[in-house]
Amino acid sequence: MKTAILGLLTGHGALVPALALATVAALIFLVTSRLACHADTIAEHTGLGRLWIGSVLLAATTSLPELLTNVNAGLLNEPDIGAGDLLGASLANMLILAVLDIVFARRRILHTVAIDHTLVGLLGILLAAMVGTAVVTGGWGRIGHVGVESLAIALVYLGGMGLVYRSAVIGPVPLDGLPSQEEDRAPGRRAVAGFALGAAGLVLLAPLLVLAADAVSQEAGLTATFVGTLLVGLTTSLPELAATVSAIRIGALDLAAGNVFGSVAFNLLVFVFLDAAYRDGPLLQALSGDHLLTIFALTICLSLALMAMLSRARRRPGPVLVESVLVVVTYALAAWLLARAGA
What we know:
Elements: H1 2-9, H2 15-32, H3 35-46, H4 50-62, H5 64-75, H6 79-103, H7 109-112, H8 117-137, E1 142-143, E2 146-147, H9 148-167, H10 181-205, H11 207-220, H12 224-235, H13 238-249, H14 253-269, H15 271-277, H16 291-310, H17 322-342
Antiparallel strand pairs: 1-2
Helix pairs in contact: 1-11, 2-10, 2-11, 2-13, 3-4, 3-10, 3-13, 4-14, 5-6, 5-11, 5-15, 6-12, 6-13, 6-14, 6-16, 6-17, 8-9, 8-14, 8-16, 9-14, 11-12, 12-17, 13-14, 16-17
């Protein structure tokens, strides 16, 4: 099936696979446009709160394209496309948050969200540093064909999210009036069903992304690192964009921020699955050094977002724009440097 799809997309120039990639991206955007609303309802009816639901449930679901794309990338022996997708999607998520902070300046997103989001942001920085260190040092050993560093990333992620869970405020759900038990449960059940349908749609569509990206890479003569980081990374971030915009529009700012920071951390966790799917040895030992530029840019963007949240108490009330503008500049500079390296 994979060979047949690649055969259909290649041999006709870069336009055909590019159109296929754009079509799949549009379908994914449509499928995930309602996920944030369903997640907000689930947060309300479970009492888990928007921070936790956004950082875990919504973030993991909108990161399904990255997970499935990278399993396929590993199976197709395309480690640089997979790693580029994970790092590029994480960087694109930070771009999304920065641009929305500028566009919705009156909402003062980074001024308003819970300070506990800094824990998830710090977790993202730590995981990015672990990936970068493993790339530079050539790995920390192996268990079978999986690198020790990948297993360490999984342990740090689980420990970090456990800390976030313990710090999150989980309280009872306020109810207006005294509706019957069945009436109270109905919206929550509908939200769970709608959320599950959206997740199923992502599962069906996401594997096509890596095939289209691989075809674009072959037809355009671009490096796998460039295609994975910019092209696939931006495409697989469309669910996060759709969900984050929807959350901001309904006023669920903690859900929006949790989705972005949680998706960054979850994307770095996906290195474990990519390493497991890549059969030629520890994944991080096989990666191009070009990924270090993306890791460095991601660390800068996460640090700028944390600075915006932590410094808000010492500022006059107003939109946080300086850090967001710097995030956009950092992304543009990284994209330009990668384009030069991949041309």
